[in-house]
Design brief:
Length: about 70
């Protein structure tokens, strides 16, 4: 895995991955905001629940990488 491959630069690797996840999530959220009405109609979930899902993606990915680093 990458954690073994980049063992000497694990902090840089973790920072890069978290940055990419954050950037991707924000881009996805911007796309969601542009097409909000269509997406809500297709998915069938309330707007607040979709917002919570984006927040969850941000925090769970960062927490997951931090926990993996602590092992």
């Amino acid at each position: 895995t990458a954690m073994v491959e980049f063992d000497d630069e694990i902090d840089k690797f973790t920072s890069s991955i978290i940055s990419l996840i954050t950037l991707t999530t924000f881009i996805g959220y911007i796309i969601y905001l542009v097409f909000k009405d269509k997406i809500v109609a297709i998915v069938g979930l309330p707007n607040i629940l979709i917002n919570i899902m984006f927040i969850n993606i941000l925090f769970s990915s960062s927490t997951g990488f931090w926990m993996a680093k602590q092992r």
